[in-house]
Amino acid sequence: xxxxxxxxxxxxxxxxxxxxxxxxxxxxxxxxxxxxxxxxxxxxxxxxxxxxxxxxxxxxxxxxxxxxxxxxxxxxxxxxxxxxxxxxxxxxxxxxxxxxxxxxxxxxxxxxxxxxxxxxxxxxxxxxxxxxxxxxxxxxxxxxxxxxxxxxxxxxxxxxxxxx
Length: 164
Hints:
The chain is an all-alpha fold. The chain has one domain: Up-down Bundle (Four Helix Bundle (Hemerythrin (Met), subunit A)).
């Protein structure tokens, strides 16, 4: 199921989406967490991108494993990439749980002039903890996405490019 899309390995296609979507989802969630007056605008996009990030990370992980199963001689070259990708998946899983919690618990104003639909603060300490956790885990997701992509690119391209 995760091996091919048409004539291409699915992993090759999915990683490009992951490299874009994961950092964008993390940055959007960080903005949602630290800028309360934007929460009315960012609440739903943060939730949807957070959930999409988990799906794309899972598909990237599974398609990478399927790609490796199809060409097992690649294993030594992609071992570091695979380890970093596994860690990235767990970071994204924690990130998604935090985004869902933030969606449900963080206070914010309404876009309506009447103020209808505004979410009241339930607990200021809880709000601070969730916001801080989103910032920390969001930065980890961005950092680990870069590290994972770098290891994958080096596995593919090391020694194949002409010298500078």
